[in-house]
Design goal:
Elements: H1 2-22, E1 37-42, E2 47-56, E3 59-68, E4 71-83, E5 86-92, E6 100-108, E7 111-115, E8 124-129, E9 135-143, E10 146-157, H2 161-164
Antiparallel strand pairs: 1-2, 1-10, 2-3, 3-4, 4-5, 5-6, 6-7, 7-8, 8-9, 9-10
Length: about 170
């Protein structure tokens, strides 16, 4: 019986080590420094904003909002945090009882993909800094049995617009 227990323990440790070795580690939060600042999205229906600040060496804080009768209406509180060797994007919205976190699963150049396959919608959040300095944000996943995606196109805004421009090497 002890031999069987040891066998399962050793097998479990092997699988955990193998899974960790196969998963890339995205632990450089500095790769997202370009996100800090004020962003504005103008669509046919509304104008919305996202504001991001670098709260610490391990955290970005943000909020998404729109203006209604000149008043700021926050729709979402956001965080991007480094936990150990993993980065998570967390969103807190009024229609969810608890914040929802998405793990950074892919980073290619200035494109970052966060995923939570257990969330109803979206399952993926993608942030991409375009060559012209604009931000393309996309939420996507399955909803009601169908693949769905929503795109948001932001440009820099705010009083400190010029100081927010990224260094596009």
């Amino acid at each position: 019986m002890k031999l069987i227990r040891w066998f399962w323990l050793a097998l479990s440790c092997f699988f955990i080590a193998t899974m960790q070795a196969q998963q890339p580690i995205f632990s450089d939060l500095n790769l997202l420094d370009w996100l800090a600042g004020d962003w504005k999205n103008v669509s046919a229906k509304t104008t919305s904003f996202e504001v991001w600040t670098r709260a610490s060496d391990r955290t970005f804080e943000g909020e998404s909002y729109f203006l209604k009768n000149g008043e700021k209406v926050v729709t979402e509180y956001l965080r991007i945090e480094l936990f150990g060797s993993e980065i998570f994007y967390t969103s807190r919205v009024s229609h969810n009882k608890y914040p929802v976190s998405f793990k950074l699963i892919k980073s290619e150049g200035k494109t970052f993909t966060f995923e939570n396959v257990d969330h109803d919608f979206p399952q993926r959040i993608i942030y991409q800094l375009k060559d012209d300095g604009s931000l393309h944000a996309r939420i996507e996943g399955h909803q009601n049995g169908k693949e769905r995606g929503v795109d948001f196109f932001f440009v820099r805004s705010g009083e400190n617009f010029k100081s927010q421009l990224p260094n596009l090497k």
